[in-house]
């Protein structure tokens, strides 16, 4: 594989002292993040460390370790290579808004269920921030970043295959992925009937059908990237096949949100492609539709009717009927909200809108913090795209932008941060947006700065 020129530049680790950024180590940030991704996608979402909440998913426990690693490195001049990183300030704002909302919730007095849920949300926030910061500051070079994304694609393809098996054979193979020593916290997603064709929805290893389809849709642009830019014909064909499996699995969740996510992801990439690539992708898309019609008859017709009759769908009308309650809760505590995670569906309503959920529970300050996260990541990936000198780097930056656009759009159709597979996929892509900004920075000290490894 061709080495990226930036990866050959040394890092400054002390006065007049440099080290290679391609040094082979036993355990570095990229390896830990890759392991986290495998745990996030390949184990059922309901599987946790015994005695813990959903924050005890193995992947999330590892994310907490990443937060501790970053914090220790930040305080130790021997572990942290200094350099500016706008995403740090954005995550500080996000954390402060969460703590302010948490305090506001405590001051108003909380029932036990709400207090427990608020504590859970705060814990997950630290885990989320840990993954964002270590992906942004800890990935050493382009080679390690691409390793993470390749593992992400393998894991997404694994989840897609699980979903396809569930859909084709009506057999929940995810039940066979229970690891000894872990326990099931909640019921795994069942096969929910949808449409008049005898079809049913599947969730793979995710906790919900919408989550399954949206995270796979976010993976498609990265699959296309490796299908186009892998160094050998064999690897390009391999990733093209992986991408095909992932893309075909999106519709079997029979979710409008999943289709919206896929269209948005590919739509963003449309602007990064040449006209020849656009025509080729149009042909591939038509072939995929034909394949879907053959493999799972009735899915396309069901999805079409779901969009055409959306105004009659109870799930759509239910969302609009929630606006009155949202207005009431917002008027009570507009700035800091009710408290993170305190709008519990079993006690109140199922609010299928992350933006409104954030407004009610975090207030205006929290909503601005969430918007700032998306804007910062889009801006950083956009700056990196403009700075990049190769088509491959530009395409990768565009794929990172697409993940943020997808998150912004689907946030209006379901409470996305309530589902940890989606939330931590977004955390990963957010952190990598900060990483590509660093790699393309004009100052060498900045683009070679990263958190050092634990073991040499």
TrEMBL record:
InterPro entries in UniProt: O-antigen_ligase-rel_domated, WaaL-like
GO MF annotation, one: ligase activity
The entry's keywords: Ligase, Membrane, Transmembrane, Transmembrane helix
Predominant location: membrane
Domain O-antigen ligase-related positions: 245-370
Pfam families: Wzy_C (PF04932)
Subcellular locations according to the entry: Membrane
Cellular component, GO annotation: membrane
Mode of membrane association: Multi-pass membrane protein
Domain of life where this protein originates: Bacteria
Membrane-traversing stretches: 30-49, 55-75, 87-107, 119-139, 151-169, 206-226, 238-254, 260-275, 282-299, 359-384, 396-414, 420-439
Entry protein name: O-antigen ligase
